[in-house]
Amino acid sequence: MTEYEKKAFQELEAWEKKMRKRQTLAARYAKVVQNKINAKIPEKVHNIITESIKKTVTAVLVGSEYTTKRTPLKEASLEQREELVLEKVKVYKRIASAEGAGTGAGGLLLGAADFPLLLGIKMKFLFDAASLYGFDVKDYRERLYILHLFQLAFSSDKKRMEVLEEIKSWEQTAESLPVKSTYLQTIDWQSWQQEYRDHIDLVKLFQLLPGIGAVIGAYANYKLLDELSETAMNGYRMRFFNK
User: What top-level branch of life does the organism fall under (predicted)?
Assistant: First the structure.
């Protein structure tokens, strides 16, 4: 290994250890508060989240929206790839923050519109990251891996453990997954949206409140992109070192 690869491997080990930790008591208490706030949010807002997840996942699996003009980067070191990925992270964080501030300033319904917009930003980043790590996103299995990374970043403790084990042995996992024509039929959309919504930070829900939504929206989106980028980089490092 190069010095950079040694450092990246150590960071990967530390990240995996962190992913295996259970939520702290404070986090579990925040979840109770979050559930109470969730119960007060109109059903219309929850429906927006569910439908946006369904449309986004469907687009990832069957559409060309995210694959167009993305070609895998060949013949580059891990360090070179990650320099480019980190540049992308900066760009997407700025976009997400600006978008969160804009929608957050509009109160409940406009704040709810942030969810599908942010989902799109997250997916575009994941597709860019995959290409920079040298994976062809036109390959159906690579798009499934992207969805697994998304779930890994935004899921409960139990689901996170399941997904982590699946990506640790991705070649075997990919072989056992349903073919593209039937995969959509196997998805439990309610579970998907529940995992995603439950993971969204307590502060993110305050983006839906008039008056303070703009500042909170910008901060929350920046933080969520930061979390996603850490998951993506270590998820692809895992495959790099597995080879």
Answer: Bacteria
